């Protein structure tokens, strides 16, 4: 089916409980979000921002655009400062809305040139009060953006070949890819051409801009992009007869009702990835549940159908051919994070460095670009662990680059805590947040570096600590060694304070599974450093040789 072909009309049939599946004849919107998307394709909001809202300011914005369609261009209203987390669930959206926006820039595969990195930094300096976070989806996220500035922001980003299109919304969002695609010595295959082809054909294509819910993709020749928790993922694998290609996974996702993706058992060559991706997203668009938003992600359809039926529908109704069967990908002994200096296939080095929980600034990005260029590099990558990697560095330049990065707060030989801590946006800017996250991450790393100094050398595998501001799991609560879900808890004195529900022992890769939620096990935010110290000391004292935390 061509990408511009409208979804196939199917005879109306009675669906179980009427889940709003288009393919079963349910075309009438069953909730306000579906109504909004049907009333006007969200991609059309760009023209209104440029022609109306940028001139009229925040108060001129139609509420349907403000809290809905703006997302298709990466724009969310940010949280008004000073509203505590205990009130998040009690206030109306308009009471939480600030007049400033969070803006996500789509950087598929986390890939930028140093010229683009400079532009990302300059946009932040000029329009975003120098804010910039590296997200765990390899995007750059700004804050304090004004709608009046959006035409200039787009002009600057697009002039450098970047976009915010479908960075958020019920759309095909940024595609995760290996930060070391094309250069890693152990890569099965370079997925970059497939990412480029999906972008070229489908991003901004109205045929796929009204999905039941968000749609997250990963394409990597290495198991280094959390493929198990994507709506669709293509993971590098060697087929015994056909050679390097990709294993296809569908239906992974976190938040509430977390699910590990299911293998379809199909092997796909590089030049067919985009076609297979189109078949998966088409099944989701046409058969996905549109009645209740909390049941709309593809994982619910995959759970009900199972991978065999999902594959059969893809093959018979969309691809019109059978896919080849194939083997499962290798699982890494230790999860990849690409931190440190590593030799590339061509003899040069890549250098991965850790900020704390992805927090950098526009000025830092500008300086990283300069440091990379001084070291002879033109390419930088963001990682799904909120880190950054400078590629193509001659061996002789590695020490100087590492020293330059340390001056910017970016460590390529970080402590296990700086390396393993991630945090979502949290209460500083997120309207759904219940607790503070980024600031706590900085405080936690600082305290653990002091408290656990005596045992740091004995920690050979990273221990991951993921801090989330609410149950939505943007920083992957369930896949961390120590996952923390923000909530209001009662302290020893009976006060309602910020704290966390604890999940222990989650992980991806070898032992992919979700951390055990310790029922009733909650810590206050103030107790967090002491709690993590206790858990880590216990693990170090009790572990068998080479035993990972999650085991
Ligand atoms: Fe916001 Fe919750 Fe996501 Fe954190 S996990 S960014 S608080 S929605």
TrEMBL record:
GO MF entries: 4 iron, 4 sulfur cluster binding; heme binding; metal ion binding; sulfite reductase (ferredoxin) activity
Cofactor(s) in the UniProt record: [4Fe-4S] cluster; siroheme
Keyword Heme tagged: yes
Pfam families given in the database record: NIR_SIR, NIR_SIR_ferr
Coiled-coil boundaries: none
Documented EC number(s): 1.8.7.1
Source species, domain of life: Bacteria
Biased composition (Pro residues): 1-10
Keyword Cytoplasm: no
Chain ranges of the Nitrite/Sulfite reductase ferredoxin-like domain: 97-158, 342-406
Catalytic activity: hydrogen sulfide + 6 oxidized [2Fe-2S]-[ferredoxin] + 3 H2O = sulfite + 6 reduced [2Fe-2S]-[ferredoxin] + 7 H(+)
Region of interest: Disordered: 1-42
Alphabetical keyword list: 4Fe-4S, Heme, Iron, Iron-sulfur, Metal-binding, Oxidoreductase, Thioether bond
Record-annotated Nitrite/sulphite reductase 4Fe-4S domain positions: 168-320, 419-551
PROSITE patterns noted in UniProt: NIR_SIR (PS00365)
Family the entry assigns: Belongs to the nitrite and sulfite reductase 4Fe-4S domain family.
Function according to Swiss-Prot or TrEMBL: Catalyzes the reduction of sulfite to sulfide, a step in the biosynthesis of sulfur-containing amino acids and cofactors.
Record protein name field: assimilatory sulfite reductase (ferredoxin)
